[in-house]
Description:
By secondary structure, the chain is of the alpha/beta class. It folds into 2 domains: about 1-110 and about 295-354, Rossmann fold; about 130-275, RecF/RecN/SMC, N-terminal domain (Glutathione S-transferase Yfyf (Class Pi), Chain A, domain 2). It is about 45% helix and about 25% strand. The protein is built from 10 helices and 15 strands. The chain has helices at about 35-50, 105-110, 120-125, 130-140, 145-165, 170-200, 200-210, 225-245, 270-295, 310-320; strands spanning about 1-10, 15-20, 25-30, 65-75, 80-90, 90-95, 100, 115, 215-220, 255-260, 265, 300, 325-330, 345-350, 350-354. Helix 5 (about 145-165) packs antiparallel against helix 6 (about 170-200), helix 6 (about 170-200) packs across helix 8 (about 225-245) and helix 7 crosses helix 9 (about 270-295). The longest helix has 27 residues, at about 170-200.
Amino acid sequence: MVIKEFSAIKFRNYQELFLPLSAGIYLITGDNGQGKTNLVEGFYFLCHLASFRTSRLEQLIAFGASQSFLQGVVNKNDTDWKARIEISRRGRRVWLDEEPVPKLSSYISRFHSLLFNPDNLYNYRNFPGERRSFYDRVLSFIDSDYLEALRSFKTINNQKNKLLKKEDLSSLPAWNRLFVEKGCVIIKKRREITADLNNRLPRILSNLTGKAQQLALEYHPSLTGDLETDSRTLENLIERERQAGHALQGPHRDEFLMTMPAGRGEAFFSQGESRVTLLAVLLALNEVLTERMGYRPAVILDDLYSELDSTVQENLTRHLHGLANQIFITTTHPPPVLKHQAVEILQIQDGRIV
């Protein structure tokens, strides 16, 4: 996938921008507060119809404006798609090839980007729900069965929680059966992608650090993934769940953890280790997407080089140059290794490319 053109009007601090783009690596530089992250946020929004920084659409609209507009030409599998998005306080309106898109999920399932930024790293490290969402986004994109199971499970879980707050629980066994059926699908596919990633992570981390290192992603489901076993577990939990007023076990409580040798988990990673291990996961997911979908997503790396030592910076840059993705990197201080690499440089100053 390549974003070939990008336009923004009244988006964050960009009053009006038109940017022709091509495949390869873009280095987006400038002082803090000039609009580097705002620009890649626009690229991300073009792919996902969502921001990675806020859920409040009004924050995306330039001060004093009532609406914001994004437009782009995206090439995917040798086909160009013209996308246009109108953002207002009431919501989003989307057109694809000049035709209105009534169902936004059909647009979101078409394009994909992989994101790394400091807030993303902090949330991944500190919140189990963010880790689940991180893998759910990729699984939902590459596997329609997973997306259907996840959507159904969320609906079933909500209905079950409502029921648990009532006196009459006569229909709970039926809801638990549906809960387990969808849960088993989710657990199976989460286990599969965990195994796939673990076949790649040690190699990628070693490439980045220059050292032979082991890295494992551990998936800890709160149920077994076996229909009958999990049905009995939920039956035994009925009284405890009634008292709690919500489901106590299920895929919504599953955990993903990264570990390095000697059982050292993420809680004991340094800032640099947290950064480089999540980058390794991201690059492994890029391989998974490419192999399963025949599709290379855009890669957005915001504030990439902070807290990485010079060796990792050099190895990471060489690794990125070996990829065929379109890559956007933001940084205030490009490392010396980039001076010897073929990159397109965009200098940002006060919401303008100078």
